[in-house]
Automatic annotation (TrEMBL), chain A:
Stretch list, region Disordered: 1-20, 45-66
Family under the similarity heading: Belongs to the bacterial solute-binding protein 1 family.
InterPro entries in the record: Bact_solute-bd_prot1 (IPR050490), Chitin_NgcE (IPR022386), SBP (IPR006059), TAT_signal (IPR006311)
Protein name per its UniProtKB record: Carbohydrate ABC transporter, N-acetylglucosamine/diacetylchitobiose-binding protein
Compositional bias segments (type: Polar residues): 1-15
Gene3D superfamilies: Periplasmic binding protein-like II
Keywords: Signal, Transport
Xref: SUPFAM superfamilies: Periplasmic binding protein-like II
Compartments (UniProt record): Cell envelope
GO cellular component: a single term: cell envelope
Family matches, as PROSITE patterns: TAT
From TrEMBL, chain B:
Boundaries of every ABC transmembrane type-1 domain copy: 67-298
Xref: PROSITE patterns: ABC_TM1
Protein name: Sugar ABC transporter permease
One GO cellular component term noted in the UniProt record for this chain: plasma membrane
């Protein structure tokens, strides 16, 4: 495109085209063409994915419903966080053995930094564990049409029992967090419970019982304070964690309706909700009475959890990744235990009710090069064999029903989560606004940070949380995210 | 120049200029283009929205607050750093008494020079971790531990330095100053070395004290270096991303409750976390403009007559 002008300029007055002018000429070409090319690529919207799936598609059969092609390649990116990435390496080795597909493996914590440029360029990996602090927000990816609708995988026959669909082999409700506008676009693979954690040993030493009501909980905090131990610790630098306590109290006090009011951006989700008022006042009571672990408001998750492991605090809020994350810091005889949030007076749900669901979203980019391979990989993830591999390597449960071989020995904390979820039965709940509305989530987290630092009062917290809800309700996408 | 030589020179200048245009100028133009769209940052699909992003920006309290924080940094970081660096550099180079006619540093100045330079060797990321431990919010933190030992602070109620809206900005300023003083000390030292000694000696004979020789001789002759330092520190104050994003709470920092927000953290949060990349590009354009204005104003304001010697 720029070649003619460059040549004309060069041919004026120069007798021969020597080496030097050739160099100059090529440089001129480069100058003109490079910006032009990047400008063109900037303008080319939504391009780049046309070749996907064609050269990687093989014959389909009963055992190979997606037509995985032997000898094709799979590009796997795994978040290397609390669960490590050894489990994925074990899967990939097995995938090569079973299906003849070799994989390139990337284990990283910088999901956004590494993948955003690739998504933008239309050159994403085939399967991604999109987790951690730097995950790419699912709602953002979805709105850009970058995610494959996983219905195909979920409706395929299960590896363990071909008469069943994959969809019917997972724990009910665990697919919900991957929903965007009614489609499952992310497979949240790990079964997680959220709530309070304590040391079985500390409880035994002090003769405490697991508190079932908020009064009993406060009584233990008071007892602990008199012995120079903090009552509740939380990961103050990340107010996400204290929101677990606040939101779970709201859900347990007000029932599923109170939870859905928040997810569905009800104009009375917080202001005008008795459950919300009672829950926030209850948490604030802990602050006011000085039952927080000193300094916990400014600590990172590892700092506060390590202090808790040193028995500087009785309780801490977290999800079931806590045990794995703290493996090195936990004393031998700590006896880590999980418990549901204690009950406020007149709660709609029983004490056993827990926030439970799935975490660690795996996604398949819609522009993946090896779509059949990625789909088959995900189908195998939901087989008992791979689920057991995961439990062994990552010390955690998956969303597959009875997905762990009984021969696998679980750690005490994980074991207590298994018991807690059995006791909970159908009494589980799970907020979804965190996946749907990032800005609202951040605003509520900021308000909680202020509440815990005693800079605002419960009433003000409710006002700010409601303002965040009202703002999110103006988002045009809000009408598509509804739960009944 | 001889005929043809122009072309010869131009040929060599071509590549650097081209590289500059492609890797420096072009991204700015691109960013401006994106700032007029509703780009979400995860694909090349977007539509043109005109100046909507800029009107939204003016009404965005968080971004406006961030600009004020940057301005606060802009006022205090260069002033404190340069004053301290000048003071130390003067003491190390011309503050000594009794030897060499008074034109030497205080005793042990060679050693101090090396020590002062140490912080400069550390990267910002390491600094953030280091000062994270200093400001830690329980008695395990260096500051709190010290204050608790001295009995000034109750161990049950330590000061949450980075979680206090009133402290957090000053805590950050201290880190930048601690980091920068050493470098500018060395810069000013080098400049001071080039000031002829006889000027000092003459002043000394005329009975000038330390303060007089500093304000009448050192500072005027150092003005070029101070000006350079001023512009550099000013640009650093407009950024502050690494420190704020790693040390303070919140997604890409800025906490508690936006109290330490700077333009770059608001931009990154919108760009990567909220997926409002077009909007974030508008912030980038505003940042560029403000930084340019700051550089120009600073260069103009500090312009003075050159002293020749």
């Amino acid at each position: 495109m720029g070649s003619t002008s460059a040549e004309n300029a060069e041919n004026n007055g120069s007798e021969s085209v020597g080496r030097r002018s050739l160099m100059k000429r090529s440089a001129a070409l480069g100058l003109v063409s490079v910006p032009a090319m990047s400008f063109l690529s900037a303008c080319a919207s939504g391009g780049g994915g046309e070749d996907s799936g064609e050269d990687t598609k093989g014959e389909t059969s009963k055992d190979n419903p997606f037509g995985v092609k032997k000898g094709s390649k799979l590009d796997v990116v795994i978040f290397k966080g609390g669960y490590g990435d050894d489990y994925a390496k074990a899967w990939e080795a097995d995938f090569q053995k079973k299906r003849g597909v070799t994989s390139t493996h990337t284990g990283t914590q910088e999901i956004t930094g590494k993948l955003q440029p690739r998504f933008n360029a239309g050159n994403p990996p085939d399967i991604v564990d999109n987790s951690g602090a730097q995950k790419i927000k699912i709602d953002v990816l979805y709105k850009n049409g970058q995610l494959l609708d996983l219905a195909e995988v979920l409706d395929a026959p299960s590896v363990d029992d071909p008469s069943k669909k994959v969809r019917d082999t997972v724990i009910p409700g665990t697919l919900d967090p991957g929903l965007q506008e009614g489609k499952v676009v992310a497979l949240n693979y790990i079964y997680t419970v959220w709530g309070l954690w304590y040391s079985g040993k500390l409880f035994q030493d002090k003769g405490w019982e697991v508190p079932q009501t908020w009064e009993d909980f406060l009584a233990i905090c008071k007892d602990a304070k008199s012995e120079g131990i903090g009552g509740l610790a939380h990961q103050g630098k990340y107010p996400y964690y204290i929101n677990v306590a606040i939101m779970d109290l709201i859900a347990k006090k007000g029932g599923l309706d109170a939870m859905k009011a928040i997810d569905n951006l009800d104009p009375k989700a917080f202001v005008g909700s008795d459950a919300a008022l009672a829950a926030v006042e209850a948490v604030y009571e802990v602050v006011e009475k000085g039952y927080l672990m000193p300094g916990t408001n400014g600590l990172t998750h590892t700092e506060s959890q390590t202090r808790w492991n040193q028995s500087k605090a009785v309780f801490i809020t977290s999800g079931s990744w806590l045990e794995n994350e703290q493996l090195k810091q936990t004393p031998e005889d700590f006896d880590m235990k999980f418990m549901p949030m204690p009950l406020l007076a007149d709660s709609a749900m029983p004490f056993e009710a827990i926030r439970a669901g799935s975490g660690e979203p795996f996604i398949i980019p819609s522009k993946a090069k090896n779509l059949p391979g990625a789909k088959e990989f995900m189908r195998l993830m939901l087989s008992r064999e791979w689920s057991t591999l995961f439990a062994k390597e990552a010390n955690s449960l998956t969303i597959l029903q009875d997905g762990v071989d009984p021969s696998v020995q679980l750690r005490p904390g994980t074991q207590s989560t298994v018991e807690a979820s059995k006791a909970a039965g159908d009494n589980t709940f799970r907020f979804l606004y965190t996946e749907w509305y990032s800005e609202m989530d951040t605003a509520i987290q900021n308000a909680s940070n202020e509440l815990m630092a005693q800079r605002i009062q419960p009433k003000e917290w409710l006002k700010r949380a409601q303002a965040a809800v009202d703002k999110a309700a103006k988002d045009p996408a809000a009408k598509n995210n509804r739960r009944e | 120049m001889r005929k043809g030589q122009h072309r010869f020179v131009a040929g060599f200048l071509f590549i650097p200029v081209a590289l500059y245009l492609i890797f420096v100028i072009w991204p700015y133009i691109q960013t401006f283009g994106y700032s007029l769209t509703d780009w979400k940052g995860q694909s090349q699909t977007f539509s043109f929205v005109g100046l909507d992003n800029y009107t939204a920006l003016v009404q965005d309290d968080i971004f406006m607050g961030a600009i004020w924080h940057n301005i606060l940094f802009l006022v205090f970081i260069p002033v404190i750093t340069i004053l301290l660096a000048l003071f130390f550099a003067f003491m190390l180079n011309a503050g000594g008494r009794g030897r060499a006619g008074g034109v030497a540093g205080v005793a042990g100045s060679g050693f101090y020079k090396v020590v002062y330079f140490f912080p400069q060797v550390l990267s910002m990321a390491i600094l953030a971790v280091l000062f994270g431990a200093v400001y830690r919010s329980d008695s395990g933190g260096m500051l709190n531990g010290l204050l608790v030992k001295l009995g000034l602070v109750d161990a049950g109620d330590p000061i949450e330095w980075l979680n206090e809206p009133d402290f957090v900005l000053w805590a950050l300023i201290l880190v930048v100053v601690w980091h920068g003083v050493g470098f500018y000390l060395v810069l000013f030292s080098a400049a001071m070395q080039s000031i002829p000694r006889d000027i000092y000696e003459a002043a000394l004979i005329d009975g000038a004290g330390r303060a007089q020789s500093f304000f009448r001789i050192t500072l005027p002759l150092l003005w070029d270096s101070v000006q350079t330092a001023w512009v550099y520190l000013g640009i650093a104050a407009m950024d502050m991303f690494i420190l704020v994003s790693t040390m303070t709470s919140g997604e890409y920092g800025g906490g508690p409750d936006h109290a330490s927000e700077v333009m770059s953290t608001v931009m990154m949060r919108n760009f990567l976390y909220y997926g409002k990349s077009g909007y974030a590009c508008a912030m980038g354009v505003v940042m560029l403009l403000l930084t340019l204005i700051v550089s120009v104003v600073m260069l103009r304001a500090t312009r003075r007559e050159r002293v020749e010697f």
